[in-house]
Write a structure and sequence with these properties.
GO terms for molecular function: acyltransferase activity, transferring groups other than amino-acyl groups. The protein is an alpha+beta fold and 205 residues long. The protein has one domain: 3-Layer(aba) Sandwich (Aminopeptidase), CATH 3.40.630. It has six helices and eight strands; from the N terminus they run E-E-H-H-H-E-E-E-H-E-H-E-E-H. Strands 1-2-3-4-5-6-8-7 form an eight-stranded mixed sheet, sandwiched between helices. Helix 4 crosses helix 6. 31% of the residues are buried. Residues 201-205 have low confidence and may be disordered.
Amino acid sequence: MSFDPQRELSFLLRDGTPLAVRSIRPEDRDFITEAFRRLSPESRYFRFWTRVRELNPRLIEELCSPDQKDHVAWVARHQTREDIPGVGGASFWRLKDDPTAAEVSFTVADEFQGLGVGTLLLALLWEHALTLGIQRLVGHVLHENITMRAWWDALGAMEQEAPRHWQTTLILDESLLENNHAGDHLRERLAQVRKSMNEEITLKD
């Protein structure tokens, strides 16, 4: 399976919201900036660990310039609502000291949290990472971010406590996922991502 940076995939959230999901592109700078601006103070704090109001343009540039090898980024947008700049996004950076691991991060718009956006984005990153030889995704979660920590724990990620946060490590092996709602939901999304990618490949062939 290969991942074409220009490919756009379609998925439905559990409430029926239609999403268009694809790799982030440099021309996405403006809507990414607006999407971050619309986040609640709490969501911005959990993502950047500081009380920021505006994102540094340099950071926006980095987020929107994935090389699809060591830096991969995906974005989910509403298919029919142009007034919504973004539903969610996720990215990973390959670790320099361990090329088989990558640091992962997620952002989900406040009005779409709890609908499975993070699970869908994780499934896309999971499959993309495996094609690049990455076997583990590493996350950093603030102690106060109870929801994110509970999600990683439910998936079976390993945890290591640090002074301000938890470091979570998820091995990209489907057989190691927990047999619970979070694990089952991720398995379903992984199957959907593989099916979508295979259908796209067949159409191109």
